[in-house]
Write a structure and sequence with these properties.
The complex is a heterodimer of chains A (331) and B (32). Chain A has 331 residues and is α+β, with helices and mostly antiparallel strands. Helices cover 25% and strands 21% of the residues of chain A. Chain A is globular, with a radius of gyration of 24 Å. Classes of the chains: A alpha+beta (331), B mainly beta (32).
């Protein structure tokens, strides 16, 4: 290009070049996925292809108007009720598999999230969604999906000395008792972050990742009887957390805006983290009026703490199984 | 959006779930 005469440059056909380059890339991706399928058929494990630094950087820096638009939360969620959408609303609900009969307060005359009237199992899911990953946490690198991990310490942040919860007061609940003395399992290094969380002999650390797709009910609930002693807000990006992205970007959850609620349940440490994503980065926790997420005044890479526990190791917010806990809002 | 639960439980806790499975509010995650 540098050495060619100006007339020759006019003969270049950018559209054709783009088509050839795009077609070649798609062909290459098809060949890669075919090769992976063949290897899986032979029983060989295929290492996931992770995003490089520049690819992660590109996703962390969305085009200029996007972050500013999403920070205008109220502007992105006008008060629109079902009646504003007319007869098309019912078709939309049908296409989105939305079961209106599960709402506590039908007909839907308000734009606010409606409570759900679903029956509760003894141990319940906090939200509608799809399971990305679940199982015991073996070390400090936790799986976000199969083969792709994130750091437990980066995700939750440094451990603080939290006053433990008193016995719970949920009707019919088994209560929350303070954990016993810490004793790290023999197989783990004594000072590991995982061992700072496990407080009782014979206990394990478990995790469960639930992905809320666009169209899923974007409220979350308390999955058990527990007491929230601490809230930590991490300002961050608003990358998509779809399964495809989670398979591609290592530590995806650690990049995004999130609110970590931690405390204690009957068996020791318990935490629930709401991780925001594209256009649903505004996280609301009903009992936390001081929480303001997705705001330009917060600095990424830092975190803001709030303790709900009072002095002398008592206090905190007691939640019962199925209690409405919070929601993801537009913006 | 995503909800991540990290919790301590006795070793005999078992999830009634598999990766990729859909779940709805109110359904069981696991049992002790």
């Amino acid at each position: 290009v540098h050495t060619a005469p100006a007339r020759a440059l006019l003969l270049l056909r950018p559209l054709r070049i783009l088509l050839v380059a795009g077609g070649s890339y798609l062909g290459y991706r098809q060949y890669e996925s075919y090769r992976e399928r063949q290897l899986e058929k032979r029983g060989l494990e295929v290492a996931p292809r992770l995003a490089g630094h520049w690819e992660v950087g590109a996703f962390l820096s969305p085009p200029p108007p996007t972050p500013h638009v999403t920070e205008l939360g109220p502007a992105a969620s006008p008060d629109s009720t079902l009646t504003h959408f007319g007869p098309g609303a019912k078709r939309g609900l049908f296409l989105g598999s939305c079961m209106v009969y599960e709402s506590e307060s039908a007909p839907l005359g308000s734009a606010d999230f409606q409570g759900l009237a679903a029956p509760l199992c003894p141990e319940v899911s906090p939200a509608d969604g799809r399971i990305l990953s679940c199982g015991p946490v073996r070390d400090c690198e936790v799986e976000q999906v199969k083969g792709v991990t994130y750091s437990l310490e980066s995700f939750l942040g440094p451990r603080t000395a939290q006053p433990l919860a008193p016995a719970g007061g949920c009707p019919g609940g088994r209560g929350v008792s303070p954990p016993g003395l810490s004793a790290p399992p023999a197989a783990e290094p004594a000072g590991s972050f995982r061992n700072q969380l496990v407080t009782r002999d014979g206990n394990e650390l478990y995790q469960c990742v639930i992905y809320l797709a666009p169209g899923d009910y974007h409220c979350f609930h308390s999955p058990t009887d527990w007491t929230v002693a601490h809230r930590r807000h991490f300002p961050g990006s608003l990358m998509s957390v779809s399964p495809g992205m989670a398979r591609w970007i290592k530590e995806l959850f650690c990049h995004n805006e999130r609110v970590v609620l931690s405390g204690a349940w009957q068996h020791g440490f318990f935490s629930l983290t709401a991780v925001g994503a594209t256009n649903v980065g505004s996280i609301r926790i009903y009992f936390d009026r001081d929480l303001h997420t997705n705001s330009p005044r917060h600095c990424q890479g830092s975190y803001n703490d709030l303790s709900f526990a009072g002095g002398a190791g008592r206090g905190g917010v007691t939640l019962c199984k199925g209690d409405h806990l919070g929601e993801f809002d537009l913006g | 959006s995503t909800v991540v639960l990290i919790f301590e439980a006795p070793r005999h806790f078992s999830f009634q779930l598999q990766a990729g499975q859909r779940i709805r509010f109110g359904e069981a995650l696991g049992s002790l």
